[in-house]
Write a structure and sequence with these properties.
768 residues; single chain; transmembrane; methyltransferase; Putative methyltransferase PMT25; 23 helices
Length: 768
């Protein structure tokens, strides 16, 4: 608050003539009348200014809209300019205090109000000053002249302040217009339709147990509100991660301290996960010149160079049409080492070589080993095929990062010493185009790992130089592979010949019975012990053995799934005898989950969040259960990485059976992907369970790492957790797009911004 300026009072004594006193008394009364009049005007002006401040927009249980503000009733046009809804029914925040101090640049209207109040206060203080001076026995002429000068100065000050505030409002309006132009295609900014409110949070009975009493809910709510009121956002302190990897930092793969201590790297141990003892809570910096990702399908052909500023692969593989530098873009002609004439031609070549592969019908979910820049998987979308592409973070810098930036599914992984993070018998087809994996060594351990995750009756497509070159090295590998695959009972169905590309592809088929295993003259490779669980896949060492093929009608893997897309909505045949995750019979549980997510997605997510779905391509469901959320997005031009946390029911085989894909993960650790990989993350009752064993701030830092700027996070959880996440999101300068609560359940939608902190935290484990 600016203080009024008081004139200096000296110690001189003046004579007290009655006439002078009378005049001064009259002047004092006049000043008092003027001050009263202007004070009333100032109060009216300030009342109008208050109405411009942000208002809390709530959605009540019956769907009506209410507004809260300490100033009383507000006009309709005082709603937030962005049009997005807020619900603070169960989560109270003193926004005008903490956020204004921490985020002054984001509260433009409040700054404007404060500046005008300051001018008004100055005017009042000047009048008070003049009133005090009026009791001094100044000469009449001197008093009038001084009053006139001060009034003129005050008038000029007020006019200047108003002009400044008008300029601020013009700048704000221009910024708002620019924002509206950029976001004009976001869709209707509306609250949930009435039908969706009843569907929003009715699916959580088994996660949260039996329904709680009103007394317990009320007590929890009081504690939640108290926490929200008292917790200061400044309690979350963010810093930039300083690492050798810089903007590409992946905590569990860039732990150089742990890698230096490895006794051996001969089995690619240095490319496997080595997570730091404590998950980092710092934020990964953005690459210089980063721009919002190009939308699919244009992104398949080109991406911004500065988003992934790596040229080594273009230099090494440019002649093979992998990737090229073209001005400010990196372009992808669609080729590869084994398909120089394009991925689509190569895909058709495989289909012609073996029509039974039947892309997009029988073969729906495939694994692409050593994927390069994943052009093969990117073009398989046109055949209704999902490809889980993977490659290590190695000297071929950024190949998986290229894939993700293009909008193609990919993860960082390596065929090393541990099993892949997938269940057994889930991939319809496995592909390896010159992937340089030594399948034949050490008893075929690596190829036997592919055998574990390949469905009985599934195909292995191997188009590598040993298939068609006759030099001593390639001929030796082919001989060793022929012996190994025969002992594994794989049937060499066909060797296709592509004359245009000058390559061949050997296509093998995994057996559907154990007859061949039992007739082998030698038990090599050996069959795994019956006690060995083929579905155990999180940090499990590889073994050079084979699991028997399931043959009982009730066993998973004994039959091929329904053709796509029927398999998406039909409960798996082997699911009938089990109890579902939500407590019902398994088929009913599966079907009700599917219907639930279809309703939520169609009624709420697609229409009620203000999300521009045309800009969404890479999605992750952080706790997928049956994959119902991904299934509900089937007709969208998106792909969903379904994550099943390691402490959740093992439903990942069901997700693959539906023709979707996913992976196991522990969210107390970092995910095997580059920063800025996903456009949207979805978490259904995940964070409340993670709080019991993880540092929630570290989990949110990981979310920030893998989410792109302008990317969205949708969270469904209990009110207490939603309140905590909202506070963390605000401390990250994220935009709160929507918050909703009903009973003790809540929904939060936030958008990551480009904000990065200025302070730096050195991660010693990631410094070379």
């Amino acid at each position: 608050m600016a203080q009024g300026k008081y004139s200096r009072v000296d110690g001189r004594k003046y004579s007290s003539y009655c006439s002078t006193i009378s005049i001064l008394v009259l002047v004092a009364f006049c000043l008092l009348a003027i001050w009263t009049s202007m004070s009333s005007t100032v109060r009216v002006q300030n009342s109008n200014l208050i109405s411009e401040e942000p208002v809390k927009h709530r959605i009540t249980e019956n769907g009506s809209e209410q507004f809260e503000d300490s100033s009383g009733a507000l006009p309709k046009d005082s709603i937030n300019g962005d049009g997005y809804t807020r619900n603070d029914q169960n989560i109270a925040h003193t926004e005008s205090g903490n956020i204004a101090e921490e985020n002054q640049e984001e509260v433009v209207t409040k700054e404007s109000s404060d500046s005008e109040r300051t001018v008004s206060d100055e005017a009042q203080d000047k009048k008070k000053s003049n009133a005090v001076e009026g009791h001094k026995p100044l000469k009449t002429g001197e008093s009038q002249d001084r009053m006139k000068q001060e009034e003129e100065a005050l008038s000029e000050t007020v006019e200047e302040a108003i002009e400044n505030n008008q300029d601020k409002h013009l700048e704000k309006n221009a910024a708002d217009n620019d924002k509206e132009n950029q976001e004009s295609d976001r869709g209707p900014h509306e609250v949930f339709p009435a039908g969706a409110q009843s569907e929003l949070l009715n699916e959580t009975t088994t996660q949260n147990g039996a329904w709680s009493t009103q007394a317990l809910e009320s007590q929890n709510e009081k504690e939640s509100q108290k926490l929200s009121r008292t917790k200061d956002h400044s309690g979350y302190s963010w810093k930039i991660c300083k690492t050798t990897a810089g903007p590409d930092y992946i905590p569990c793969l860039d732990n150089l301290q742990a890698i230096r201590k490895l006794p051996s790297m001969s089995h690619y141990e240095h490319r496997e996960r080595h997570c730091p003892d404590e998950a980092p809570t710092c934020l990964v910096p953005l690459p210089k010149g980063y721009r919002q990702t190009i939308q699919w399908p244009k992104s398949r052909e080109k991406i911004w160079y500065y988003n992934v500023p790596h040229t080594k692969l273009a230099q090494v593989k440019g002649h093979q049409n992998w990737v090229k530098v073209t001005g400010e873009y990196l372009t992808f002609p669609g080729g590869g080492t084994q398909f120089i004439n394009g991925a689509l031609h190569y895909i058709d070549f495989i289909q012609k070589s073996l029509p039974d592969i039947s892309w997009g019908k029988r073969s729906r979910v495939i694994l692409d080993v050593g994927c390069g820049v994943a052009s093969f998987g990117g073009h398989l979308f046109e055949r209704d095929v999902l490809a889980m592409s993977f490659a290590p973070k190695d000297e071929h810098e950024a190949q998986v990062q290229f894939a993700l930036e293009r909008g193609i599914p990919a993860i960082l992984s390596v065929m090393g010493t541990k099993r892949l993070s997938f269940p057994s018998a889930v991939f319809d087809l496995i592909h390896c185009a010159r992937c340089r994996v030594p399948w034949h060594i050490e008893g075929g351990k690596l190829l036997l790992e592919l055998n574990r995750v390949l469905r009985p009756g599934g195909y292995f497509v191997w188009s590598a130089t040993p298939v068609y070159r006759k030099n001593p090295e390639d001929s030796g590998i082919w001989k060793a592979m022929s012996k190994l695959t025969k002992s594994m009972c794989w049937d060499l169905v066909v060797i296709g010949n592509d004359k245009l590309d000058g390559v061949r592809a050997a296509i093998y088929r995994k057996p559907t019975s154990n007859e061949c295993y039992d007739k082998r003259p030698q038990n090599e490779p050996p069959l795994c012990k019956e006690s060995d669980d083929p579905n155990a896949a999180w940090n499990i060492p590889m073994q050079a053995c084979m699991h028997r093929v399931p043959v009982k009608a009730s066993e998973r893997g004994s039959r091929w799934p329904e053709q796509w897309p029927l398999r998406l909505k039909k409960p798996p045949y082997w699911f009938n005898s089990q109890a579902g995750v939500y407590g019902k019979g398994a088929p009913e549980d599966f079907s009700s989950d599917y219907e639930h997510w279809k309703n939520v997605v169609s009624h709420s997510y697609l229409n009620g969040m203000g999300i521009t779905w045309s800009s969404v391509r890479n999605i992750m469901d952080m706790r997928a259960v049956y994959g119902g959320f991904a299934a509900a997005l089937k007709d969208m031009k998106v792909w969903v990485m379904n994550v099943v946390p390691i402490d959740s029911p093992d439903t990942l085989p069901i997700i693959f059976e539906r023709g979707l894909f996913g992976i196991y993960h522990d969210w107390c650790e970092s995910f095997n992907t580059y920063p800025r990989s996903y456009d949207l993350l979805h978490a259904d009752h995940l964070f409340s369970s993670l709080k019991k064993r993880c540092n929630l701030v570290a989990v949110v830092a990981e979310v920030d790492r893998i989410l792109r700027p302008k990317g969205k996070l949708i969270v469904r959880d209990n009110v207490e957790t939603i309140g905590e996440l909202e506070s963390i999101a605000k401390s990250l300068r994220w935009e709160i797009r929507l918050i909703y609560s009903k009973d003790n359940e809540g929904l939060l939608c936030v958008e990551k911004t480009l904000w990065r902190p200025t302070e730096v935290e050195t991660i010693m484990s990631a410094i070379a």
